[in-house]
Design goal:
Chains A, B, C, D: Keywords: Cobalt, Glycosidase, Hydrolase, Iron, Manganese, Metal-binding, NAD, Nickel. Chains A, B, C, D: Its cofactor is NAD(+). Chains A, B, C, D: Belongs to the glycosyl hydrolase 4 family. Four copies of one chain form a homotetramer. Chain A is of the alpha/beta class. The first copy, chain A, has a domain of 66 residues. In chain A, 47% of the residues lie in helices and 15% in strands. Chain A has a six-stranded parallel beta sheet with strand order 3-2-1-4-5-6, sandwiched between helices. In chain A, strand 1, helix 1 and strand 2 form a beta-alpha-beta unit. Chains in contact: A-B, A-C, B-D, C-D. At the A-B interface, helix 9, helix 11, helix 14, helix 15 and helix 16 of A face helix 9, helix 11, helix 14, helix 15 and helix 16 of B.
Chain lengths: 466, 466, 466, 466
């Protein structure tokens, strides 16, 4: 870190990169950045060039002397890095379309993080993360890894618990969005509120206190079905059953809609699917529009349109995090980190998403204490499922994948669930080397994705052959 | 116990009573019974008289001098009892029909033990069990309670953990049926096999070893979808996915079909529902037939037809249990008892259903050790749900009932699940005094069970008024 | 809290009260105090009047309008209190002399917090605290209790876990003293260091990081045997074995000397004992001197001599704590609070002394994670002993007291330990109503404290009779 | 196991071998033994020949055709073994003399199992056991290991948890002796009593029930200080404090005397030490006498004198265990085995000594449930100490050894404890290769065992040089 900080962003061609640049620029007075490396893969080169040019224009518009490098050579980029951020999506948005459409074609939720789709996202992402960690161990053994590649919690668990990289923090924008929006709902300011979160990534609850220490969670529950109540843009706002929430006296996260109102969420997803407008397909269009904007050589700032994506504020959270570590800020953030007992109902070495103090030593979780039975049961099921997913992702064990599928509350159990699983394996063949033998076997058995959109994406990828 | 054992059977008018009598007669040489009291409620008096007369004929046909008492006075019966068995069904089979049909009328599984129906069976049964324990504390403070009122695990947890009656053992026929039938499947004899069970009532797994200590679980998994492979008569035999079972290397119980093949089980139930042949409705007919048989004054033994019911062997298990306690037999049985660490993933004071040694001191569980992630996640979810159900049953907290419903894997989450919950509350009004205030409120809101069969049963009960 | 804060100090006649006044005066600009009530018992009235007069002079010397009340009527004082601090010592310093001398007269450590003496201090203090909580429940149900009556951890556990008063924080000066003194030892400033403490009151460890997040614990271990290395004044500085500390890579607290170098500490105590200069006897003299100083009507500030006592900075910690709660400061403090999983090797509802964030909601512990085997074993033993002590203190169960004694690492096990126990019971008869029956029995058996100094104190107390 | 069982006994030259032979002869009708290999090291050859000849004479006196092999070649012996028993003592009785005398020369308990001596016995034994397991993995991968090399619990933990050999059972004679002798004390027969043990090797408690299921523990406590009450011959019978035992309502094991009456036990040991009659020195004489007896060519049975040793019934327990496994006996035995949750206060993968069911699948522990605070605290301390000892034994980490020493309740903490530790390291140099570097350093610092008897034994061993 002599002469300033070196930041490396893997998946640098992402449409979210301008938000990351904006965040770093804003914090530059306290963050002496020397260079930023945007890394991508050959398939992402075009996007990398477009967004990289915008990034350069953004920094040129500032008085700061920061060099921006665009590269397809990850190892060159990682050399002596101080902070590495990971925001890549293996298989790009097409993989997400497949993740969502194949389950929906069988009448089941795809859901790209915790649903069937999320399981496959983990299967594709974790091996790549393993390769990144192997490189980091060699090239930048002191670097912090700030992960926001999804499913962020499981990827972070793989990194810390399985690959042994302790200096890793997993981010998510969901808690941040709740803390940004909720105060206004009850005509308060954020500075006067205490937020305490606990749970897993995309599966956490929070409670809120005012500056006199009074629990005002119930007051916020009353407004949870209001518009703009703190749900990320990507989640359909089915109405929460208030009696359930009052009974728990906890604010669920937006993703809990999939678990508390599975039926409504499924119906909404099926309706989008029927119109060819799954969330992934919508995003592909949004992304196209964004990149058109980014090409504008006069643009030297993050366009407002970016905030409409579900992933807004992820990058800003990454900047907050880098800032807190570098300057030993001792601030409250909600991150995925090692449990250490903060949630006694889960193992101390599990990764959880909890209120933490962020400082030079990284994230230290605030102990939450025993969960009530309802939340405990859910959490323990979800964590066990995550463990099966991660083990399957690392070992390529099909049986373990089937176990994870069976446990997933968003997947209907039975023969059709197995059919969905098998189609997804075949569909993502080129990104799942660890499962290669099983996929060959499935193909021999004649497994073929039935959804025509997915089928066509696969055919395109395979140069016309399916 | 001077001059012989006094046994009291609450729900003595049950069609299962002849099996219980047969079991006691068979064991009489080692079980010096003095008297047997069959207790029932006024609504059950007719059945009590029929089955009681049969019981008397059965004992008259033996050389043994045992007195049989039929009574509606529970307190008189309990005085100085040595063993109390509980096999009652609050609301009789009509309540079960309601439990099954209302959820199915909304396209959801009713399932009379762990499904929506099972939740209401717990709500109805636990308060009655509380009253029985209050009586026992006063009238027979040293008696053993052998419970097989369902949901047996939850009722046993309420009795031991909440009502503080330690001398209680919860029974179920599912493990017994597996151990009876599986050996033949692989051409073995039961005496040469080691069975080890662990889990919760209607949610346990087992593994099997041969007499050389070799694990032969996989061999049995291969035959699990065979006919007569050990599933109780009341469960539709949807095919288990073998790859899942091989991965876990555990034999699931028959009820796992509802969790591993929910979709198939639901479709089967919906088909039965459409024909007016839900399991409960079938059973009402079977019971009618049985009681016709029982009336035959020449009948002095258990008729073979009884074995067709799902609950066969429950009563025999009760006899084995009484025998083991009275004679300090130190035998292996699978019962619901206090965990004590046998399943480290659940609290030591939870009730679990595990392989135990039965002797004069009651049941001592064999420690199973850590469960794999998949089974652990399921168990922890199910136990947390059971805790919510039991708490709701005791306190009458509607919010807690809603939490339990939301967690139940057999209930679709969302507004329609709440509708099912509310209809069930209204439908079972007369058996749920603890929820009286909430039920009044629901009725004011216009909640009415929509299923016509259920509606008619309620109307009959209410003398024509719904 | 309308019109300002009401603070009540029970044990207001303590020699530490001037430090408390100084702390409150210093923070007055952010702490709008309306009135301070100093409460004591009739035996303490003289001291209360002396120190109360000094307190009044101290406030008179400020521009602040705060009323000081001196009273023997605890209930009048507690009415509508906002903060209650407890710093009383049941039986005054004479009781401590007995606590220390009786064990030493048998060649064993007395040690007024965790040793045999500490056990009796808990027995005397916990019932009084129970009475205070009963009053508070009635008179000031919203008040915060800031406890620094020793043994602070056990008293806090009794208050929170057994008496159900959740708004309680237990304080100790040991962590504060370490954080004050250690930075200078390695030529650093406190603001550039991260302190993380975990363990139990008078039995905790800490680790230290610099502002780059590097662990510098080992650097501090190297200096632990330096003079002024952070040990409170009341603890003899036997040399820590550095190889042990390097192996643990943790900084022990000063009290660990009793456990890591028991032999040296015992020899030192025996030498003091032989000279009639046990710590308690020394303190009695120091206190006498302090009260002489306090009588000086020209004195209107805390005299420097007070800092020589082992308990210095306790009161200042109390002020920091009140300040943090009232103004929602979100600062790091080391306090006794509910574990909540912060130390996974202890029960979530145990009281532990750990790094916490102090704010309007009270103390929230930072999760520490798994302890190494060595520290875990010690902590679990000590917490189990504390549980036995607290249970004995509440129930008056002699067997439980004997169990606690047997477990205490500072007490030699065997017949002589029981002799010490029995003498202490008899010696403290008038402060141990819960053990009255057993003490009568012991007296009948002829148990008499053999130490002449103790015997004389008892005789004085009993008006000449022993 | 074709054509009969092959049993290998490592440490076959032990004076206990005749008991083992007697036990196997007695059980031969159900145990078709083909051959028994007695293995020893060159230093033990003479004893091996003497005891081996006796063993041969014992079998010759039976009608059974079993071959006895005497060998110094462990690998030849292990080839295709079915059962391996380990009863060796690294360094023979001279090492035990050193273990006991060096601590006593500093006024501390040596105690050859859990005291300072036991720690060094673990340090010497565990590496040898590692080598045996390495051989077994190659030469008899299906064999059962029946360990009674002390400290049996720690050695078993090393074998199962660290070396990964699951088919291992650790034995001890202490529970067996209690169950043999106690019934007579209350004029009962063993068959009418239920014994339940739980804890660690040489640190367990038990409770007893009669055949009506009534807890009769208190009745037995009343007799615990009687002669012949069930304490092994090697333990001085200091009187247990009955009030403590009544409070716990558990029967302690004989070794608890060291923890509950440390002072008395120390005084007794110091008196023996002063006379040159430590237990080890006494045993050396007993052993000499036994071997003289064994030389008698007319002797063809186990001489009665052997039962006077503390280790009597160890070998018989091994025979019971082999018998139970081979014939799938499903009997109750108290053995060291994997916890699996039987003691929830310890980790599921720890080795504990508990009531278990022994059958073809090995030992399955009966779940005991939560321990009371007193026993829990002790157990957790002792297990943590064991973990430190085992880790030090495997890694040769001196700091970890120092941690274990500091935690050991039988060792006084402080500088003198470290002196004892260091002398023991130097004294056992030739059996502690894993600590070689540290021992060299200690010798350079001039550490020399001061006890003259120990010093001479070392000098003898080293050919005159110390």
């Amino acid at each position: 870190m002599k002469n300033g900080i070196k930041i490396v962003t893997i998946g640098g061609g992402s449409s979210y990169t301008p938000e990351l640049m904006e965040g770093l620029i804003k914090r530059y007075p306290e963050l002496p950045i020397r260079e930023i490396w945007l890394v991508d893969i050959p398939e992402g080169e075009e996007k990398l060039n477009i967004v990289g040019a915008l990034a350069k224009r953004m920094w040129s518009a500032t008085p700061y002397d920061v060099r921006i490098y665009l590269t397809l050579d990850r190892r060159e980029a990682l050399k002596d890095a101080d902070f590495v951020t990971t925001q890549f999506r293996v298989g790009l948005l097409d993989a997400r379309i497949i993740d969502e459409r194949i389950p929906l074609s069988h009448g089941m939720l795809g859901q790209e993080t915790n649903g069937a789709g999320g399981i496959f996202k983990a299967f594709r992402t974790i091996p790549v993360m393993k390769a990144i960690i192997d490189d980091m161990r060699e090239l930048c053994p002191e670097a912090w890894l700030i992960n926001f590649a999804n499913p962020s919690g499981m990827v972070t668990e793989a990194v810390i618990k399985h690959f042994g990289w302790k200096k890793c923090i997993g981010l998510c924008n969901v808690p941040e969005i709740a803390m940004m929006r909720e105060p206004a709902v009850i005509a308060q300011e954020r500075k006067d509120m205490h937020y305490r979160f606990a749970g897993l990534n995309h599966f956490h609850w929070h409670k809120v206190f005012d500056s006199n220490g009074m629990d005002i969670t119930r007051e916020l529950i009353a407004h949870i079905n209001d518009k703009d109540g703190g749900t990320p843009a990507n989640i359909y706002q089915a109405e929460f059953p208030l009696e359930l929430l009052y009974s728990t006296n906890l604010l669920p996260c937006g993703y809990h809609r999939y678990y508390y109102m599975k039926k409504e969420m499924l119906q909404h997803s099926l309706a989008e699917f029927a119109k060819g407008e799954t969330r992934a397909e919508q995003m592909k269009n949004v992304e196209k529009t964004l990149f058109e904007l980014y090409k504008d050589e006069n643009l030297a700032s993050k366009p407002a349109e970016l905030e409409k994506r579900g992933g807004a504020y992820y990058s800003d959270a990454a900047c907050t995090c880098i800032h807190a570590i570098h300057n030993d800020k001792k601030i409250h953030m909600v991150v995925s980190t090692v449990n250490k007992g903060a949630l006694p109902c889960l193992a101390p070495d599990s990764i959880v998403e909890v209120s933490s103090i962020l400082s030079a030593t990284g994230a230290e979780p605030l102990a939450w204490g025993e969960m009530r039975a309802h939340e405990k049961g859910w959490l323990q099921l979800m964590k066990a499922m995550e463990e099966c997913i991660i083990e399957a992702a690392i070992t390529g064990d099909y049986g373990m994948a089937l176990e994870a599928f069976t446990m997933n509350p968003l997947v209907d159990n039975g023969a059709e669930a197995k059919a969905v699983l098998d189609e997804l394996f075949v569909a993502h063949e080129n990104h799942l080397p660890q499962f290669a033998a099983k996929i060959r076997e499935l193909k021999k058995q004649g497994v073929v994705p039935k959804d025509p959109v997915a089928a066509e994406l696969i055919a395109q990828r395979n140069g016309g052959k399916i």
